[in-house]
Write a structure and sequence with these properties.
The protein has about 375 residues and is an alpha/beta fold. The chain has 16 helices and nine strands. The longest helix is centred in the first third of the chain and has 32 residues.
Length: about 375
């Protein structure tokens, strides 16, 4: 009798274990399936949402970006991927430099993902870090340079999906304090991706941006349930579906969550050349004005599209807006404010080094850094003789 009860107990114990294992496996697979369309900015897969709700302190589980009140968003300090720290504790990619300069010539690289180094797992592969190596190697034996500077430090202030509005805000509220000697600016790609025919267009881009990347951790008792993949999936599906939507924070979701103070359509502004109410040239000129006020030199790098990419081939509006924005950069350079870099699709073999519509492989980034370095060297040498 006792043996029979013990056997039943073992049977039910095994059955419960099998049911739990099946539920956990199903929960894991459901979370993985629903994490396919990941928002690369906030890393809001079901697994990342789970980590935030559990208040996981492992740098590998940090969200990629952090919401900020005036900077919009910044690279999450300490974010780590594949064992490599991608973001320093000062909130930008690569090695951190001290706020106050210590005898180095300081270069600030600003732009979107083409500056940040999208899809590159090591920050050393992005063009700012490669530019740092090239310039320090070039000036290593330059007596005139060494008499004035200890070396060169290049900051990567690139921001994935960052448009001219974020670049302007980040310079004014943050990077201005680093007092760069030279600012390298490649901008316009993400502004060009904002649909100009969107009738909800606002020049402050509030129709496009949603900045609440981060989730408040659950109370300890509730967070304990998140150790289970099954309960994690149920809780996220019931209460955090909006947070899991990869585009929720970057598109109009059908409800008015911002003030519609502008009634002008961006497409008509472009068509009639009415740039008085057009966001990109306004932000660009404001940013350059601030940089000039800080007595920094400016290097303007045009946005280059991969001619072999399907999206580029099919999206005429995207191509036209990029051409327009590049012409604005060239016009600014022609007026004596900044130096224009002749960077075109012919400068790099995009068939070999292009990854998508605009991003480059590590080798492509190296070639881009070399191209930019020629103009940077000229500007630095000019500064040495003044």
């Amino acid at each position: 009798m006792r043996g029979s009860r013990f056997q039943k107990f073992i049977f039910w114990l095994i059955l419960v274990f099998i049911v739990i294992a099946i539920c956990e496996g199903a929960g894991y697979l459901a979370m993985k399936y629903n994490s396919r369309g990941m928002d690369f900015l906030s890393n809001r897969t079901y697994f990342r949402i789970r980590d935030m709700l559990m208040d996981n302190k492992n740098p590998e589980t940090f969200p990629k970006y952090l919401s900020q009140p005036y900077l919009a968003y910044i690279p999450f300090p300490g974010y780590t991927k594949n064992g490599e720290q991608q973001h320093n504790l000062s909130g930008y990619r690569g090695k951190a430099v001290p706020l106050t300069k210590d005898g180095n010539y300081r270069i600030l690289c600003m732009g979107g993902s083409t500056t940040y180094g999208f899809k590159l797992d090591r920050f050393e592969e992005a063009y700012p870090a490669q530019l740092d190596s090239l310039l320090n190697l070039y000036f290593a034996g330059d007596a005139a340079f060494k008499s004035k500077y200890k070396g060169i430090e290049v900051m990567n202030a690139g921001l994935e999906a960052g448009a001219s509005a974020e670049e302007l805000a980040q310079y004014i509220f943050k990077y201005h304090y680093y007092k760069p000697d030279l600012v390298i600016l490649q901008t316009g790609l993400n502004d060009a991706l904002i649909d100009p025919q969107d009738t909800s267009y606002q020049p402050d881009y509030t129709h496009y941006r949603r900045m609440d990347f981060n989730l408040k951790p659950l109370p300890r008792q509730s967070a304990y349930l998140m150790h289970s993949y099954f309960f994690s999936y149920i809780i996220i599906s019931l209460f955090y579906t909006d947070a899991a939507n990869p585009f929720y924070y970057f598109e109009q979701d059908g409800t008015a969550k911002y003030a519609r103070w502008n009634t002008l359509n961006e497409d008509s502004l472009i068509k009639h050349g009415n740039y008085e109410y057009y966001a990109f040239p306004h932000n660009l000129k404001s940013l350059i004005s601030q940089i000039k006020m800080d007595s920094a030199q400016i290097l303007l790098v045009p946005s280059v599209l991969n001619p072999f990419d399907k999206m580029v081939k099919e999206n005429e509006g995207y191509r036209n807006r990029i051409a327009l924005y590049n012409s604005m950069l060239r016009e600014i350079a022609n007026n004596g404010t900044g130096v224009y870099v002749d960077f075109t699709a012919d400068s790099i073999d995009y068939a070999r080094y292009g990854m998508d519509d605009c991003h480059l492989t590590a080798k492509g980034e190296q070639l881009k850094a070399r191209l930019i370095s020629h103009k940077a060297i000229q500007l630095i040498k000019q500064e040495l003789v003044q």
